[in-house]
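3.2 Worked example (two chains)
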Amino acid sequence: MERIRRIRLDAVGPRLAERIADLKAGRVAPATPRDAATVMVLRAPAGQRAEAGPGVEVLMLRRTAAMKFAPGAYVFPGGSVDRADYSEGIGWQGPSPEEFGARFAAVPEQARALVCAAVRETFEESGVLLAGSPGSGPPAVPSGPSWEADRLALTAGELTLAELLGRRGLVVRADLLVPWAHWITPSAEPRRFDARFFAAALPPGQEAAGHEAEADHVAWLSPASAIESARAGEISVLPPTAVTLYEFASAAAAGRGPADIVGGRREFKAVTPRMVIEDGAVWLLVPDEIEYPL
């Protein structure tokens, strides 16, 4: 029998609690999860000297209060896969879609779209671009008015990733993305995502800037300090975010820097938490081996 870890959810509204009861009674059917991609962008602390040893900061965005999903929460860049992410016109360099598919339980076409969505969403939401010229050169450095115009057009749906990269002679750098985790939103949630998580080091010369329509604050946080802020109620994070922060904090405590973290192969399996109501409280149930820090 699988051992389960129980996480009490205190900030659950009456509508969700009612939906949990309706699902249990068979009065409603669960929503179908949408494919989504999330990217944890890592860097060494700004201004850190080499003799200070390894350190890690992760890029986090605070979602605006107007967002339908997780308003006000601190999240990593990411979002749903679009139809255009399946375009065969998107140039590619790095591990094959078959390799990503094997890690994420996805067919190659789906895995390719997930990687492209990860690159697109990260650029839209943070200005970090995981793309470059074909070959062994460094990733591109998107800076200046023309790049910002392209970013806004991409976000508005006026430009596709294939068009953006094609006109600039760039390809998706799949080799910069490391499969990290796979989370599927509980069936009780009306908005569900089949989310694949990637880790990536911040490319040299690039800077992060949020997109005002979706994020009202951009921060580079050490994973340990982000967890402490969440424990103190200073920031809000979703359970998968908290678990991932703990994993990065553990890696940093073991002396691993960003290059070490993204340089290895991580083993994982899909996690689909369940929500239940017991004794008037809502609980999230996850496999016991998952370390939840809050």
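3.2.1 Second chain
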Amino acid sequence: MKPANRPTALIAEDESLLAENLRLELQKLWPELDIVGMAAHGQAALQSALRLRPQILFLDIRMPGMTGLEAAHALAEDWPDSDPFPLLVFVTAYDQYALQAFEHAAVDYVLKPVQTERLAQTCQRLKTALAAREAAPAPAGMQAAVDQLRQLLGATGLGAAPAPSAPLRVLQVAVGNNIHMVPVDEVLYLEAADKYVRVITAEREHLVRASLRELMPQLDSQRFWQVHRGTVVRSDAIALAQRDEAGKLTLQLRGCKDRLSVSRMYAHLFKAL
């Protein structure tokens, strides 16, 4: 049985040869590090990380389906408050401009193909960070991780698609042989539902065969706020943002009985003036 105090890590990389090379290099540079899992795509990385609770997560930026940044974003929303958030190391082939953004956000990275000397520096940084975390409370570490991810998404431009020349004004919704024209001014919120998006108005619910990722760039970002990775709400439809004793935010909308949860990543949108 392995000692309980060994540091743990999860590797998420869709190229199996690169993943195995990274594992072997880490094994040589940091024998005490316990690689508890390998994930071949972003969704698997999210599920494995939530199940295994590693202290360190090596995330490939470009993975099929959910990218490394999106997986980290989702993990920050679902991670329990009781545990320190994993230290993130992004594995990337980006150019120097993008790398400066990673450095600015205080998130470490390694370039492909992985160089032993650079990975050794990363290992040393991780050891230092793990030692520092022993004295830091988990909530503070969680908030720092969320702030870093939010900053990183904004600095690299990887978290948002280009804005359209003019925001969408009408959603064309197919119902049988008919196409309903739903003004976006009537939309209270949108919610991801598998391969569809639920479009909720005060009168009824529509299903749009598109992803939330596709729809969001077409909406006016000043009016439509993302409050969870799967939920976008029209800001002027929000009547009340209520915070419970644990600090969780719930939204009450005008003309709708539904209550919407706000994730950690978007709690900063709600600050009293």
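3.3 Remarks
The radius of gyration is 21 Å.
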